[in-house]
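Support request, please re-run this one:
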Amino acid sequence: AEDLVQASGMPFIFLRAPAFVDQADDYVAKGIKSGRFYGIGDHLTRWSYVLTDDLANYLAQAAVHNDPAILNQTIDIGWNDGPHNQQDLAQIIAQITGKSVKLTLVPWWVLRLMVRPVRLFSDLGYDLLKMFLFFQKGKFVANTALQTQFFGTPPSAHDALTRWAAQKGLARDAAA
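Re-run finished. Output below.
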């Protein structure tokens, strides 16, 4: 899609969103409430994340940005402390919530096994599985230099997850 837009000659701003911590159904928050962090893959592979509200904020800022230098840019979105693995997220969330959080992973081999059967009945499911398997390569890492230039310093994982936990009623203060 980016190639087609670039070839059209129309001005553009691409924001490349990484993985969303907060899902539509938010299985992560539901898991945390029961003391589990449900993750994908393994303990080591790192990739970039964003909160939906943060991405929406960056999209709005891009739409009204007054610096013409933003035009025709591809801007990675992420956190200022870089990519994180599933264990990192579980530990940060445990610290923020004050809860003991057990990391429960769906291993890469299960995703690889599911790809072909899922493709038979769900294009979206197939795309999601392929996306997660791409994460396994460890190349899904945002370079936040342009994000910082045009939108200011991105939040850290701790800052973003603190806001997320508060919204979900999971923060240590919310439990009191």
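The radius of gyration is 18 Å. The longest strand covers residues 36-40.
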